[in-house]
Design a protein that fits this description.
PQQ_rpt_dom; Quinoprotein_ADH-like_sf; Methylamine Dehydrogenase, Chain H; Outer membrane protein assembly factor BamB, contains PQQ-like beta-propeller repeat; mainly beta; WD40/YVTN_repeat-like_dom_sf; single chain; globular; five-stranded antiparallel β-sheet
Length: 407
Amino acid sequence: MKRRRLLEGAGAVGSATLVGCLGFADDGTGSEYQWRYDAGGEIDAVSQGVVFGREWSDGQIVALEGTTGERQWAYGATAGMDTYSDLTVTDTGIYFGYCTDDDCIGLYALKRDGEERWRDESVGTGHTSPFVVDGVVFVSDSVGIVRAFDAESGSELWTDGVDESDTIASGSGIVDIADAVYVEKSAALVALDRDGGSTRWRYDPDDGDTQIIDAAVSDGVAYVTTGGWVAGVADGDEVWRRSVDAVDVQTEIAGITTDRLFVLANADRNESRLYAFDRTSGERSVLSESLEHPDDESGPVTAVRDGVVYVGTDRLRAIDAATGNERFSVTVDGGPIWSLAVPEENGADDHTVFVRVGKNRLISVDSSGERTWDRSVAGTLRNYLVDESVYVGTTEGIYSLEWRVDA
């Protein structure tokens, strides 16, 4: 189970895809919607016809009927700067942590009807949502200790037993759960046995002297990025290592295809490069030179789908993942691109790219670069989720928007 963020604090859970905002009644702002819930908030999941999210004003968790927006139930509340973490929603329950400004302490489980199933207020969960795989809840706290709990009863199954002096780096934690639990700890990537928590292997780049910035796992191989290089790691052994063209850069994994790994390297906020690495040999190619984003506080945004790498700056570009050739480049009016995502649809060659422009506008284009939709909603967009409809969370409300292609 791999969960990577797609937009502004929103996590993808279940069959729907969390992305960003879109367009049926008119609220006076020119937007169109099917229904509106009159409390600003964020959306975490749409599952079995129910929209799960968190209100902005008091932090309470709400479940909304997907076709009408009617609130089915609400749970809890937070105060001040405290928040609930992003929710993890499964077919049988909802799981989340309780976070203060300093840390996240407390693991909660609800039934799907909002009734509390269990809680453990002593468990550190880190500033991420729990992972739930095959009836087990996995969390990692602020010092890198991973714990596993029975999702139904809340009984602790194991703790990995790492020394608490092995502090976890800021922003890291559980990377992926597949054949093992992959977790960043301090300057290392560690694979833990899913059943008992024992260490299978540990990868310490440069004997712990180099900080891992990003990591991902695909087909049993881990890929890590640092401020100067990218590496492929199998069973704890470094298979290949390739440098980027600068040191002390911010690197992030933009996506993985069957053959290639894509990495975005930001030398500064206004100058980035997109690299492709052969997953077997590590052979490197530069797909895009000197990407510039118009806003000093942002940078290029990327998404990979069906053999295409999409890059958003002041325009949307589509790059063939195999050849590096540009398929199209289109401009958008109304400001730079703040986020983009490509939800899963039927057919590998028939997908829609959603692009957030400005504070509350979303544009969609098809796989040929033709614009198909242009909508806005009231308030500043927090996140959105594409399912049968498009569900949008803003500072003013939660919306259901009809997903259709404009004629």
